[in-house]
Amino acid sequence: MNRLTTPFGSYELTRFPQDPRDRLRAWDAADEYLLHHLASGTGDRGPVDLGGGRQITVLGDRWGALTTALAAHHPTQITDSSLTRSATMANLDRAGIGTAKDTVTLLTTQDEPPARIDVLLVRVPKSLALLEDQLHRLAPRLHADSVVVGTGMVKEIHTSTLRLFERILGPTKTSLAEKKARLIFCTPSTAATAGTAATAGTSGTAGASADPWPVTYTVDAEGGSGAGLTVVNHAGIFCADRLDVGTRFFLRSIPNNTNGARVVDLGCGNGVVGTAVAVADPRAEVVFTDESYQAIASAKATFRANVTRDRDRADFLVGDGVAMLDPASVDLVLCNPPFHSHQATTDATALRMFAQSRKVLRPGGELWVVANRHMGYHTHLQRLFGNSEVAASEPKFVVLRAVKRMERERRP
Asked: H/E element holding 97?
């Protein structure tokens, strides 16, 4: 656990799920730079007035560092990540703040934004698409006197990032770099703020471009069991306008007949894998899980675009993997695990997914994983399950299968 010291106070912060072996902090220099600017100003720009009942919205807070530090000013946090939401709640509780309605408001990227935003603070996300979508959604809630400040590490802020702010909101400048972090200063234009609360989700003005999200496409004939499916991607979902090569290979490899099984599409993204199962086997009960609210919205839309009956045989769950499912309640888990956490490359998320899968699988149940060959997941599956086999392979990707045995069948 690490302590963040800011002009607003000092706080012990952790990521979520909390892991004592995780050495990554719950904040970085970009968060520190923004908080310093709000209190003291930067260069020729003075501090930001956060008082007088001003509505403060924090977009893209990674682990709740900004929201926790600014809790005394009653901010609204908007996040796509349920893990961020959980981390924020834990960090607020640790600081003795809590999440009562009179302190902090926690919203998702799919929720209705605040009707009026006086101060918009943006932690630049990894996905430019998500940034584009959210700026479109929030633009009509800004006004001529709104203050917009973004922050990110230098490597996260590109010319395309600044162009998004400029195109959707208004004139945009950046600060000097400090500890490899940079601030973005944006002045909302009349065109951007001309919309009303009723037009959220669109540009809200004839002078600005419309929000292009979500994106819809049809899987081509080479998409295995997904061929012909309609896929809906909300902003921020990996590979927005086509089927990525890993998922394409997975769809050509997974079982075609699940025989009415309870199947989990773990880390479902746009839900094309679970939807392919539901189309191939109408008796199957499919559970879609992801930590992203945008992903679950995409999975729901993809499923409903292709399955017109037995909708009660699908569940959509936002959270930490399959932690919310009962032990020994699942027959088959299908997983295309991520190997990034924000900008950091790590296999921690995948390994947690594998361990969780073993707990929720029934004896004889199977975990199928597609991954880049170099990740070496077969060794982890062998250790967890006592077995692992290659179900399909090509030069770049491999599909692995592990079976949950009865405890007495496991070998050391």
From this structure: none
